[in-house]
Amino acid sequence: MAHSRNVRIAATALLLVVAAVYIRVVANPFVLLDDNLYLTENPVVQRGLTADGVRWAFTTFHAANWHPVTWLSHMLDVTLFGMNPGMHHLVGVAFHVANTLLLFLVISRWTGAPWRSLFVAALFGLHPLHVESVAWASERKDVLSTFFFLLSLLAWRRYCERPSARQYLPVLLLFGVGLMAKPMLVTFPILLLLLDYWPLRRTGSAFPVPEGDPPASYPAVPLSRLLLEKVPLLAFAIASCVITSIAQREGGAMPTFELMSFGNRLEVVLPAYAAYIGKMFWPSGLAVFYPLIGSEFAFPATAGGALLIAGLSYLAFRKAARLPHLFLGWFWFLGTLVPVIGLVQVGMQSMADRYTYLPLIGLFIVLAWEVPRFVPESSWRGKTLAAGAVAVLSVLSMATYVQAGYWNASRTLFEHSLAATGKNMNILNNYGLVLQKEGDLESAERQFREALGLNSNLGGVWVNLGTTLRLERKTDEAISVLAEGLRRHPGDTRLLGNIGGALADRRDFAAAIPYLQQATGPDQAIAEPFNNLGVSLASLGRTAEAVPCFRQAVRLEPGKAGNHVNLGVALAALGMKNEAAASFREALRLDPGNGTARQQLGAL
Questions:
Q1: Which of 66, 85, 122, 398 is such that its CA lies 20 to 30 A from the CA of 443?
Q2: From CA 217, how far away is CA 387, in angstroms rounded?
Q3: Calpha distance 590→582 (Å, rounded)
Q4: Among 345-349, 354-358, 558-562, where is mean pLDDT lowest?
Q5: Burial 117-143 (b: 16+ CB within 10 A, else e)
Q6: Distance CA 7, CA 23 (A)
């Protein structure tokens, strides 16, 4: 009884420590990295949880993904808390704390080894590699999908105790919801086969029971049935893979084999596995984006990674009968990383801290069961292990607290990432956006040009450089830069919209209109090209055609007073005085000092 009470006290203390380490992120803002796609510039999410929003969540490939449950989670936050970033971050922390508790419950119920299970949960809750998944609002999908993953494992244990369709259905439903939060869970059916071997021991395999484990509590199941019962889960996983592949190809996030061969992908995959293991033991130099490895280092890094993976895989197979936890933990890590390791390359990063959120659990299990084997039996053994665990967790807690602090501002985050990785095109681009927003246009232009010097095929950087030049009133140079970007990326609506906007800046409205018309298709979710098209049409006397453009700009960006003013001016020109007055009043509500709206309303 006292032992059980001590475990509960320790588990409660762990949850409080995890919450205390992460609570500082509640003061953080949204960052200029994907948070715009998910929240700050997403008009659908900003309307909160609505019927239209639910339909959009299940049908959109926005952000090159299909994860409707994640979208619904963000919409619910907006409904409950508005656009308060602190509350959005607090929800992420709450999910992480819940996941830490669930992981402890899952492993302790599997193994009957509460202290080791608690150590696994503590490593999970306090490791700095997991900061990115918790502190980054856009990565809600990590903590959310893992939450449903762990609930699925709890439901699977109940199914193993009393196999039936009734017990299987919750597993299937929870797994499906988890996939709709983040498709990284597709390896779940394979992982269940590993768990059938150990610690559930449903395979009937004969091996010594590891120290601290209870006797096998589930009857042996024929291999054919073990495989058959995973088929519905596998069907869900395959469907998720197909949908995700379509979403990422449509979003341009997945390079073809012509652009990146299988050999090139191996140069990413093998070193990444080794790097993840290294950062687990020594989590320094963490960054929000790791660029692809340079060709001069590709061969030694690839060869080293291949030797490490082959050696550890051989060891895990060789020791499977005597050390089943090693077999489970290693292949948990190896397998759950497959969707994001780079065989199917998404984006231009070599690895990402957030990808470790689920896979590192496998290596944590190995550590929790292996380390005690090397501590000699003595009356001090338990205290020695406890003291070592506390020391390790204390260091990790401090490192995690520091790492979480880098998310307190976009500038801090990107400066730290540049210091950790050196030349980094994506971070240079995002750092430029921060400088642009702060008004330091000259420095922003320099960052964008440096990013293009590293990789001139990034369409978004051409857009950002062109936008910065427009803000600097270098209109002709902006048009030239944007045209070069469009030559490299034909049909890119961002480039088309910015060229049209630049032409409108110099009042060449007739030339601007064709570009803006191409940039304002039915899938366009940005208000600016609609507004610019409306201004160009109205300036040429085509006011009736301009009104629908201004209405769409207002629909997409209802919080911008200027959009309402432009709509009001066009409506007034057409004699629609009541609607025009309503537009001007809304503009004044949003911006009481808007002189144009006040003047126009007075004239009406």
A1: 85
A2: 32
A3: 12
A4: 345-349
A5: bbbbbbbbbbbbbbbbbbbbbbbbbbb
A6: 24
| pLDDT one-digit tens code per residue, 189-226 | 999 999 999 998 888 754 555 554 555 567 788 889 99
Instruction: Describe the crossing of helices 425-438 and 410-421 by its angle, rounded to 10 degrees.
Output: 150
Alpha-helical runs (H) found in 376-507: 381-405, 410-421, 425-438, 441-454, 459-471, 475-488, 493-505
Cis, peptide link before residue 114, omega less than 30° from 0: no
Q: Hey, what are 147's tokens?
A: 């939450």
Give 449's contacts (C-beta < 8 A, 6+ positions apart). 465
Kind and range of the H or E run holding 492: none
Domain 423-519: give its CATH code.
1.25.40.10
Which residues are registered as beta bridge partners of 290? 351
Longest dimension (CA), the chain: 93
Second-level CATH architecture of 530-604: Alpha Horseshoe (1.25)
Which pLDDT score, from 0 to 100, does residue 459 have?
A: 84
Question: What are phi and psi for residue 350, nearest 5 degrees?
Answer: -85, -25
> Looking at residue 254, what is its pLDDT?
53
Tabulate helix, strand, coil % of the chain (nearest 5).
75, 0, 25
Distance CA 588, CA 560 (A): 11
Beta strands in 235-336 (DSSP E): 290-291
pTM: 0.90
User: By the 8 A CB rule, do 216 and 276 touch?
Assistant: no
Of 253-262, 341-350, 354-363, least confident by mean pLDDT is 253-262
Indicate where the chain has its CATH 1.25.40.10 domain(s).
Answer: 423-519, 530-604
Answer yes or no: are the C-beta atoms of 280 and 336 closer than 8 Å: no
